[in-house]
Amino acid sequence: xxSEVHSLEDILQRNIQGEELKEVQRILYGxxxxxLDLTKEIELLAAENNFEIKGYKxxxxxxxxxxxxxxxxxxxxxxxxxxxDKPVLEQTNSIYERLRVIIETAGQAGVNVLCLQEAWTMxxxxxxxxxxxxxxxxxxxxxxxxxxxxxxLAKQYxxxxxxxxLERDEVHQDTLWNTAVVISNxxxxxxxxxxxxxxxxxxxxxxxxxxxxxxxxPVFETTFGRIAINICYGRHHPLNWLGYGxxxxxxxxxxxxxxxALSEPLWGIEARCAAIANAYYTVAINRIGTEEFPNxxxxxxxxxxxxxxxxxxxxxxxxxxxxSRTPGLSRVRDGLLITEIDLNLCRQVKDTWGFQMTQRLPxxxxxITKATQQDFKRQIVKE
Length: 383
Fold this sequence. Notes:
Blueprint: H1 8-15, H2 18-29, E1 34-35, H3 40-48, E2 52-58, E3 70-77, H4 88-108, E4 113-115, H5 145-157, E5 160-169, E6 175-183, E7 189-194, E8 220-222, E9 225-229, H6 238-246, E10 251-256, H7 260-278, E11 281-286, E12 288-297, E13 306-313, E14 317-319, E15 335-342, H8 344-353, H9 361-371
Parallel strand pairs: 2-15, 3-4, 4-5, 9-10, 10-11
Antiparallel strand pairs: 1-2, 3-15, 5-6, 6-7, 8-9, 11-14, 12-13
Helix pairs in contact: 4-5
């Protein structure tokens, strides 16, 4: 952990000053986002419980016929607490207790919609291909222990919570899914969304456990706006992001678990590009730390057998439809990112750039339809 870089922002701030730093940040992050003032009590809670807290603000133009639609969005990144060879119940309870204080801090800071990282209730054990004990972490989306745990907090703090878990679908033959449960600010389960794209690369052996979703691209109408969840590997597929936009999403969360050697050059680009292309906000969340497993496993990249994925690099951030984004959280620390956004910016950007008006969906529909046929012939012109 000590050898890992804390964050890109930390390096920039230590080595560049004044107006030059502002210009570098403008080039990297677009229109500057403002710092969101957090109370001393909130900052003290974070310091006492050893997690990073950052707050930012994304504004929109004032309108005469629409009031500002201000929403505070929260994203939590965290590492697992105890070793992976401990009993399953001890592991989950330790994570609950760690997350409780961070979630409560988010609630006290006025967060309206909060999202946790992918498979937050467990180690990211899908690299191992072993079914036990890891499938014992699976639970019902509707009334499993993590849902019950979060329902109380959601209702207490009037906060929508997105809870990505390993789902056990008892109604359909006990099958497993990578699922995000949406819990309303009333405490009710509003619904769920599942992972549309499953990786088959390197150590990511997830298709051993679950397959691609059959639920499409659901968008959830909440008190605080229309939200959707593009789970992890789905961020590599532009049409997946498009699906949530076509269904009216205003905020799309991307709870993830990804390591530096594999994806870090892509991390700051994909969710931001999706926000621009679809005129909604994106919230990219990655876990942190290095998780070691009892038994060695092999992967599809030729590495010798090993016991860990590598370093999950955190760096969670929020991107806005105008191309701006917040700085990222740390690469090495638990963290809570709070971003106050104005949802009116979504329509304002659509009006400015006209991407939705000019996107030519019928043209792409015809091409995609043809490309799925066995007798498809590519449109290549030769001399």
